[in-house]
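Hey,
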Amino acid sequence: MKNIKIKYRKFNESQKDDLLNVIKKISKESEAKDKLASKKLRWEWQYKKLPSKKTFIYVAMYETKVIGYMHFPVYEFHIGKKSIKVASKQAVGVLSKFNGLGIFKNLSNFANKDLTNKVDFIYTFPNKKAIHTYLKYNNYRKVMTLPIYMKIISAENILLKKLNLFGLQKIIGVILDNLLTIFNKKLFNNESIVKLNLSKSSHCEIFNENSKKYYFSINKTHKYIRWRYNESYKTKYYIYGLKRNENIIASIIFREQEIMGLNGLVIMEYTYSNNFKDLMRLISNIPKILHEIPYKQKITFVLLSGTQLSLIKNLLSGYFYIPKKFSPRPLIYLYKKANAKKWINEKFYDKILVTLGDWDVF
């Protein structure tokens, strides 16, 4: 198939059914964990109903059929005090029988050329196989690998599922669980953990206010939070806050997810008003709210990843850093400029807010 002619085009709405069919085929070929990506309602929510109402989509075609695709939904960011448009490179794929023809590289080049001056930046979290192409051929820069932290909720359940110690794993698990409670942070007398409502702007404003503190971040307005988490397609998200007197001083948004055969909670967004310790007290007390969550299987861990989390190491939080070599999916944040007038200088890296919610995990 080396001499076949591949065409690269902007997506046309008349190609929607063909595109969704190809997404479904590629998901099966790659054994993708996301089984909903090709569902029409999910696709329309993710790429048509987002706050900006704008997604750039590009397709590779053989004769009249779509054989590959790339999606670039546009989000509103701020850099300093300037409002900018940033595209997130998501949902890319090429049918396996067309592999080895340079289609991914060529489609990327086509998309990057078209996006020039239409957005200010493009960012992505590529897998290990694709990083080389992004860095060498598409002029992306590596910003960081997001640190990943885990808090064990049930060592007993982990040992029972992963080890066979002739019955001793249950005893050892109970002992470890009791030892891990020493890391739990007690709430103050005037504090409580409360369930919040994603549809109420007053419950979500803390995320917007916190994002404004950083040099570079998605504008996490209520409109964005509501779309991302309250209107999401078939994924249930929960929002809880730490309330002191009558004020919400820290908040998290999380979901239930299975990772490596274990069921846990993944924190997608986190925020606090003034003190990082407030956030840690909220997260430390997650076990107290588990009875309110209709989880599918017993919760064994809480996963937390993003920027601005370095203080975890110094607060005896009970969260353990997962080294990159043990991470099932390193979260490597790459970006490139699409508008020559703006750029992020490396000295601002410690002033960037990135959470798991910025990744295309829905």
